[in-house]
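User: Okay, second chain of the day. Same drill as before: sequence in, structure tokens out.
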Amino acid sequence: MNHAATRPRRKRSEEGVALILAITTVAILSVMLAEMHETTGTAFAVSTSQRDALQAEYMAKSAINLTRLLIAKEPAIRQFVDPLYRGATGRPSPQLPVWDFVNELLSPFCTPEDQRDTLMQLGIDFGDTVGFEDLPGECHVLAVSENGKININDPLFLSGERARNSVAAQLFSLTGGHLPESPYDALFMEADETGTLTTRIDLITAVIDWWDHDIQRTDFDPGAGTTRTGGTGTEDDSIYQLSKDPYQNKNAPLDSLQELRLVRGFTDDFWATFVEPIPNDPVSRILTIYASGLININEASPQVLLGRICSFAPEVTLCTDPVESLKFTTILSTIHQLIPLPLFSRPTDLLDFVEGKGNEKALYAMLTGFLGEDSELIFAPIEIPEDQRTPLARSFATSAQIFTIQAIGLVGRSQVRIESVVNFHTRWVPPPPNTGRMPGLGVFHYYRMN
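Assistant: Same drill. Structure tokens below.
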């Protein structure tokens, strides 16, 4: 009787244990499922991100290669414009700056299908195109001519004393060395964190000592425009030994623009004034380390052109009178903004402009005819010394040969940025063992992917 009475209680106890086991099992399975879901979701997100990053990388690489192709095909494009240019100026067309419009010209290759309304309105029909319907993202590209800037690195086609003199004279002129009171004098009047004062001459010689191959300290005479080595000792006792992490002169050409940060005098203020006035904007740069040494008169800023002219003719009014210098840079900047086309077909066209020479179609004659000969907006013509006119003309060029090309690929939330410097100069050939002709799409001097 008592045995029968205990059965129901044991059964109820077993049912309670079963319920606890069931709840525990469900909880464990829920944790496992949540962990599996999280792991699977993370793996999917990582794989998606890697896929987008790879697609963005190749979008950026395609933009770089298409830009190289566009620049290489510029001579063919110029043939269509040459008759119109000849009719307007009476001179053959110089190299066209197709790279200035590369982002717009390559937009069909970089614009997703659902964002092409603007292109369709411009008359671009994608109806018969193949391979543009499945673009995974977009890309943006910027190309800048390095030949329009002053090269302070070891020039490609100059050596020895000629190379040193060229860099020293240009940098001295650019920093206002020939002006009685230069607005840049303040940059050379304050000591750095080590208590060292760097003058204009100190900075110029420090740049040259960084890349020249000897260990003798360079001296520069701005009056004569010449340099010499060995006059004031060796480079071993340089101020670089006073830094927290001592180092020495490289005695080899610079490899990147950021390397200039190691050179004496290249402070933040100097960098923002002459190297890169707008951060991370290669268009705003005034100095470069990649150009051949020749300056493209159609790509250089008025400030750069004035610096080159004054390095050959420092005694003319454009170099000694701040008002005349300002007139020259202002009027030429205004013309470039109004006329986004090459202004000069030959280097002598620029010399005729600053000397006020040429026929009625010459630039200076057109300005005086439009503004009036007595206008205070126009600078007074100068007279370049006869013995300097030919060397000055030979230091200019009308074509761009070395370019900075930056491309950004965007796919989903992934962004890949490629920075490169490409050389198209036919006089440059790869060093051994890769000697031969310059490839049609140029060669890379610098390539970095972020």
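The mean pLDDT is 82.

User: Thanks, on to the next one.
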